[in-house]
Design a protein that fits this description.
Blueprint (H helix, E strand, L loop, with lengths): L8 E6 L4 E6 L3 H13 L6 E2 L1 H14 L7
Antiparallel strand pairs: 1-2, 1-3
Protein name: DUF8149 domain-containing protein
Pfam families: DUF8149 (PF26476)
InterPro entries: DUF8149 (IPR058462)
Length: about 70
């Protein structure tokens, strides 16, 4: 996995392994899948940092107008 200055990184955490890392945005899905397959028999343990995921979900909901009063 390579990163460039143009490819932002995303924090990935695994509570079972007690590890964290930053992965290029374009590699996040593959990195999480590979980690979980290799170390956790495919169980969804490693994930995008939950605080970041919640923030992204909030931003998307705002952009889509889902949080506006009708």
């Amino acid at each position: 996995m390579t990163t460039s200055d143009d490819d932002p990184t995303v924090p990935i955490v695994c509570t079972d392994c007690d590890t964290s890392s930053r992965v290029a945005l374009s590699d996040v899905a593959d990195a999480i899948e590979n980690h979980n397959e290799r170390l956790h028999d495919g169980e969804d343990i490693a994930t995008v940092d939950p605080d970041i995921a919640a923030h992204i979900a909030d931003m998307a909901a705002t952009d889509l107008g889902l949080l506006e009063d009708e």
